[in-house]
């Protein structure tokens, strides 16, 4: 009897961290564009398992649906854009943002070939996926920086990226915002990449992690392990192109090597490690949301919406620098960084 108890004790002591985690967590991403890779890598590069999280990553199209999943309890973590998240919070959603991996607009302004200068957008039709989200913010931010009055352009809800690309090729639209791989297809169709909007001065937190505030309060350790896995996966992606390309091949189901390479080269430098949110970008987005949803009168206190206290506890910045030295001194950077 004693020997059996001893054997059981040994098995428990040597078991992996996540073996006895009964709860299974759901993590959503909003689409198939390349900037969603910051969620894919958590699963595909083993970061969730590494930090003892029994979790699935699931496609829930669009920030709005992701937030609905969080509030309904079917999701535990959702990757959302700042505009959609702040709109939901302004309307009473009890959400909190705990980090983010992309603070630049990951779109390009794609136009008809005869449009060679931003000023030529005046009087033109510009397609966005819908109103109040990242697409519209990107267009308005670009127009503002180019000193083009927003009212001089017709902004239209025109559906997903594939639909808008068809609209451009059929000349139903004069311009839209797209990202790889659609931008590559656009160039093949003879359309013009007028500007990469990541070059704008405006910051925009595109990839943010939202959770229910009650979930954070009751499951702080889970959120902490999530953020460890999030940082680890993104670091691997940024610093090992072979791994990054493999993730894109799997998730985008794209066989053209040139397309995958171009997609990786476009996105990889834009991801943030550590996963901190640019507060100026969040403030700018809050002003945009208030003008569109709050009638310019409501106020959003971003200090109450963004909670990076777990990141502060982890001190990921120092851990990342230490890991970078270890990672780069290993065999060609092929060993995954160990943050914690």
Key terms for this structure?
10 strands, five-stranded mixed β-sheet, alpha/beta, D-Maltodextrin-Binding Protein, domain 2, 16 helices, 340 residues, 2 domains
Give a written overview of the molecule:
This protein has about 350 residues and is an alpha/beta fold. The chain has 2 domains: about 190 residues, 3-Layer(aba) Sandwich (D-Maltodextrin-Binding Protein, domain 2), CATH 3.40.190.10; about 90 residues, D-Maltodextrin-Binding Protein, domain 2 (3-Layer(aba) Sandwich), CATH 3.40.190.10. It has a 5-stranded mixed β-sheet with strand order 2-1-3-10-4, with helices on both faces. Strands 7-6-8-5-9 form a 5-stranded mixed β-sheet, with helices on both faces. β6, α6 and β7 form a beta-alpha-beta unit. α2 packs across α10 and α5 packs across α13. The chain is globular. It starts with a helix and ends in an 11-residue tail after the last helix.
Give a brief description:
The protein has 340 residues and is an alpha/beta fold.
Topology:
Layout: H1 2-14, E1 25-29, H2 37-44, H3 47-50, E2 55-59, H4 63-72, E3 77-80, H5 82-90, E4 95-102, E5 108-111, E6 125-128, H6 134-145, E7 154-157, H7 161-169, E8 175-178, H8 182-188, E9 192-196, E10 207-212, H9 213-218, H10 220-239, H11 241-252, H12 257-267, H13 279-292, H14 302-305, H15 309-314, H16 316-329
Helix pairs in contact: 2-10, 2-11, 5-13, 10-11, 11-12
């Amino acid at each position: 009897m004693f020997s059996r108890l001893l054997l059981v004790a040994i098995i428990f002591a040597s078991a992996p961290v996540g073996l006895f985690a009964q709860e299974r967590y759901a993590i959503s991403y909003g689409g198939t564009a390349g900037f969603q890779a910051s969620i894919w890598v958590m699963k595909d590069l083993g970061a969730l398992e590494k930090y003892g999280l029994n979790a699935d990553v699931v496609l829930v199209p669009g920030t709005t649906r992701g937030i609905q999943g969080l509030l309904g309890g079917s999701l535990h973590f959702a990757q959302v854009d700042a505009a959609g998240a702040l709109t939901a919070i302004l309307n009473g959603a009890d959400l909190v943002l705990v980090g983010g991996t992309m603070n630049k607009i990951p779109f390009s302004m794609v136009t008809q070939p005869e449009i060679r200068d931003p000023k030529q957008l005046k009087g033109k039709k510009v397609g966005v996926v819908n109103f109040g989200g990242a697409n519209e913010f990107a267009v308005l931010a670009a127009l503002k920086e180019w000193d083009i009055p927003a009212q001089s352009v017709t902004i239209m809800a025109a559906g997903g990226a594939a639909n808008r690309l068809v609209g451009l090729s059929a000349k139903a639209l004069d311009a839209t915002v797209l990202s790889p791989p659609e931008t590559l297809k656009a160039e093949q169709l003879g359309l013009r990449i007028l500007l990469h909007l990541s070059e704008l001065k405006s910051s925009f937190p595109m990839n943010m992690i939202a959770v229910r505030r009650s979930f954070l309060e009751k499951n702080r350790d889970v959120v902490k392990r999530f953020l460890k896995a999030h940082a680890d996966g993104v670091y691997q992606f940024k610093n090992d192109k072979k791994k990054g390309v493999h993730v894109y091949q799997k998730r985008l189901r794209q066989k053209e090597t040139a397309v995958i390479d171009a997609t990786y080269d476009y996105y990889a430098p834009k991801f943030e490690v550590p996963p901190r949110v640019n507060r100026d970008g969040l403030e700018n987005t809050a002003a945009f949301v208030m003008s569109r949803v709050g009638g310019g009168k409501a106020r959003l206190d971003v200090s109450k919406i963004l909670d990076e206290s777990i990141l502060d506890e982890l001190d990921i910045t120092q851990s990342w620098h230490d890991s970078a030295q270890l990672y780069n001194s290993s065999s060609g950077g092929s060993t995954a960084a160990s943050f914690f």
